[in-house]
């Protein structure tokens, strides 16, 4: 018997397909549309939030030239002299950008300045190496500078005799890259930090700006090379240049906010003031005087010690007097020479500590006597040193040293 009952086929859940086309389930389609609409709305909301944020709608004040505000790039601004210069500029209402690679500077000095001037658009710090061309180009492309104070450099005479290539490379390369960037971005004023070491050991004292330059150590030679680069560039440029050749720097901020805090690894090559204070604080066993057989009254070197407060005042005056297409060269000192022995005795009195002194042979690259004639800078910039009491300058610096046993590190006052 035949069975004519039709078997019932199970309906497939797959959508029907005609001519190779699949028909999408309407429910799934609407879900996809909802997701697209939600994502589009979210993106639109993000765009609105970003566009209405202060950082989007207002470019950095450091990237803009503003009438009545002079924006100064301070290279090496975390160092001893550079940080004091930045402090003075900020006090005088300049806008300041500090660039320092912190190889010898102190981040603690930057923090002090940031705490003193926290207002937006006053101070920014960029950690970068001026020997890196890409970094230098980026800094200048992102900031609107009106002037540059170029302090950044390795700066120890003794070290320069041990590692001359470092000094030639650092001082000349950094200066070249800064000049190239200034020219490319039309930054038209440079205040250059030079040194009396470019004179070497002149036959006649005091030293004037016309004294022949015959440096006797790589530090002085490299600085003279940088000066020559500036002077040659000046011949084909309308920029304003000021070259300040300063003598031996001492002292610290009279209000005790900043001081001299060299890295421990550079103590051997550092300034005599740091060596005296280290001995007075017991960090070192005593003070070493290198060379007691020079042709001077007491056999020790004679130097012109200028207070850092006076020095930065000279930089500000140079900035104010700089003229397009002109170059000014000035000695910055007190016009009076003091022997190393005189300095040590003044340090003993200012610290109240009987410092043990050891005499050693001469240090390579040192010269017997240098002190300045400052009549030109007085005549043309109306500048003269005011903090000329050696013992008082050391006393001011000693107060900072006593309250900063670890430099800009954790405070420790007992020793």
Automatic annotation (TrEMBL):
Cofactor: NAD(+)
Any GO MF annotation of the entry: UDP-glucose 4-epimerase activity
Biological process per Gene Ontology, one example term: galactose metabolic process
InterPro entries in the cross-refs: NAD(P)-bd_dom, NAD(P)-bd_dom_sf, UDP_G4E
Coiled coil: none
This protein's record includes keyword rRNA-binding: no
Domain NAD(P)-binding: from-to ranges: 73-388
The keyword Heme is annotated on this UniProt entry: no
Keywords: Carbohydrate metabolism, Isomerase, Membrane, NAD, Transmembrane, Transmembrane helix
Bilayer-spanning residue ranges: 36-56, 68-87
NCBIfam families: galE (TIGR01179)
Similarity comment text for this entry: Belongs to the NAD(P)-dependent epimerase/dehydratase family.
Official protein name in the record: NAD(P)-binding domain-containing protein
Species lineage: Eukaryota, Viridiplantae, Streptophyta, Embryophyta, Tracheophyta
């Amino acid at each position: 018997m035949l069975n004519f009952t039709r078997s019932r086929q199970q309906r497939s859940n797959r959508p029907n397909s005609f001519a190779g086309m699949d028909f999408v389930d309407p429910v799934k389609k609407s879900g996809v549309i909802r997701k697209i609409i939600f994502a589009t709305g979210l993106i639109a909301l993000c765009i609105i939030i970003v566009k209405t944020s202060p950082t989007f709608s207002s470019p950095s004040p450091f990237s803009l030239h503003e009438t009545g505000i002079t924006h100064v790039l301070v290279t090496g601004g975390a160092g001893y002299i550079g940080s004091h210069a930045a402090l003075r500029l900020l006090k005088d209402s300049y806008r300041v950008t500090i660039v320092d690679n912190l190889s010898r500077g102190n981040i603690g000095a930057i923090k002090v300045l940031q705490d003193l001037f926290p207002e937006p658009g006053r101070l920014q710090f960029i950690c970068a190496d001026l020997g890196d061309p890409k970094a230098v180009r980026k800094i200048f492309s992102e900031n609107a500078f009106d002037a540059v104070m170029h302090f950044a450099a390795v700066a120890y005479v003794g070290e320069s005799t041990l590692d001359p290539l470092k000094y030639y490379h650092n001082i000349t390369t950094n200066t070249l890259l800064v000049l190239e960037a200034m020219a490319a971005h039309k930054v038209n004023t440079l205040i250059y930090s030079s040194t009396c070491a470019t004179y070497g050991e002149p036959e006649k004292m005091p030293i004037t700006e016309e004294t022949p330059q015959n440096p006797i150590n790589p530090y002085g030679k490299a600085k003279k090379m940088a000066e020559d680069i500036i002077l040659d560039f000046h011949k084909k440029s309308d920029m304003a240049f000021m070259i300040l050749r300063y003598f031996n720097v001492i002292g610290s901020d009279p209000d005790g906010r900043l001081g001299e805090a060299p890295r421990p690894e550079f103590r051997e090559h550092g300034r005599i003031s740091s060596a005296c204070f280290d001995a007075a604080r017991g960090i070192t066993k005593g003070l070493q005087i290198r060379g007691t057989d020079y042709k001077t009254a007491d056999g020790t070197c004679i130097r012109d010690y200028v207070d850092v407060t006076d020095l930065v005042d000279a930089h500000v005056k140079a900035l104010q007097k700089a003229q397009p297409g002109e170059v000014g060269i000035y000695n910055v000192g007190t016009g009076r020479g003091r022997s190393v022995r005189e300095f040590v005795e003044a340090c003993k009195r200012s610290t109240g500590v009987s410092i043990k002194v050891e005499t050693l042979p001469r240090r390579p690259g040192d010269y017997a006597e240098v002190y300045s004639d400052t009549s030109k800078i007085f005549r043309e910039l109306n500048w003269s040193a005011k903090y000329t009491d050696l013992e008082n300058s050391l006393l001011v610096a000693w107060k900072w040293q006593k309250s900063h046993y670890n430099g800009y590190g954790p405070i420790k006052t007992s020793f």
